[in-house]
Specification:
Blueprint: H1 2-11, E1 16-21, H2 33-36, E2 42-49, H3 59-87, E3 92-94, H4 116-122, E4 127-128, E5 134-135, E6 143-150, H5 170-174, H6 188-195, H7 200-211, H8 215-221, H9 225-236, H10 244-247
Antiparallel strand pairs: 1-2, 2-6, 3-6, 4-5
């Protein structure tokens, strides 16, 4: 069964594919899989390579590449879910690649319902690096993972035991937000200020500032780059402007 599913996934163009039993999936912050999908027994995980857009100094080009890969991954997820239900007689639920996610104002940060990084590690697709990204044995950290939950009982693939991170600290030194200074942690607050400068905090800040201005000043604020970029982010979703942790890592680069 595993070979049948993997061959189908690879036929869709994904770069690698793995399986993790729910019992082997360990995420310190995400909720238990059983609370999302009672009866889930396995996680099937696809790996998709990021293109060279992560190297572009132009944030629009870099972000467009990320949007492309997210659209591709979402489509792939649906096809794999459909294959599991139609051809394997299983139940399947697609996991969000990025959003939607539970955003609770009572928490200081949003936590995904399923950690795709921990699912990838459980499926034998890589190990964590100093940048807290998962390093794939062949592709390095320039990958995105996507997953589908299923009630099929599929044993986990063997874990990746190779120490892929060279501990060169280039990612730490390259991070413009200094968000990786503490090993094993990514400072979410520092990271998001640089990687998502037009995110939720910016939207709230803009409108609070706008509300305190005179009518003439309010009109002027609506014709600034800040407003235009914030408006664009409002319908794009999470708009990333920094990929340094991906692009600076030498592992897997040609």
């Amino acid at each position: 069964m595993k070979e049948k599913i993997k061959n189908y996934a690879l036929s869709l163009g994904v770069d690698d594919f793995g399986f993790a039993a729910v019992a082997d999936y360990q995420s310190p912050q995400s909720p238990k899989i059983e609370t999302i999908f009672p009866g889930a027994k396995s996680i099937v995980v696809a790996c998709v390579k990021e293109m060279s857009h992560v190297e572009s100094p132009n944030p629009q080009i870099a972000m467009n590449g990320r949007l492309d890969i997210m659209e591709y991954a979402r489509s792939t997820n649906y096809k794999i879910s459909r294959f599991l239900e139609k051809d394997c007689g299983a139940r399947a639920m697609s996991v969000p690649l990025s959003y939607p996610l539970n955003m609770d104002p009572q928490n200081s940060r949003s936590v995904a319902d399923v950690s795709l990084r921990h699912a990838a590690v459980a499926a034998g697709l890589g190990v964590f690096g100093r940048h807290n990204l998962v390093i794939h044995p062949r592709l390095g950290p320039r990958v995105l993972f996507t997953a589908v939950l299923t009630d099929l009982a599929l044993p986990s693939d063997p874990p990746c035991t190779e120490d892929l991170c060279t501990q060169c600290n280039i990612c730490v030194e390259s991070c413009p937000a200094a968000a990786l200074n503490v090993e094993g942690q990514t400072d979410f607050g520092k990271c998001i200020k640089v990687s998502q400068p037009y995110g939720l905090a910016k939207i709230i800040g803009f409108w609070m500032k706008w509300a305190g201005k005179s009518p003439d000043e309010q009109i002027k604020m609506l014709f600034t780059k800040d407003f235009f970029m914030t408006y664009q982010a409002s319908f794009i979703g999470f708009q990333y402007f920094c990929f340094k942790c991906y692009s600076s890592c030498p592992v897997g680069q040609r």
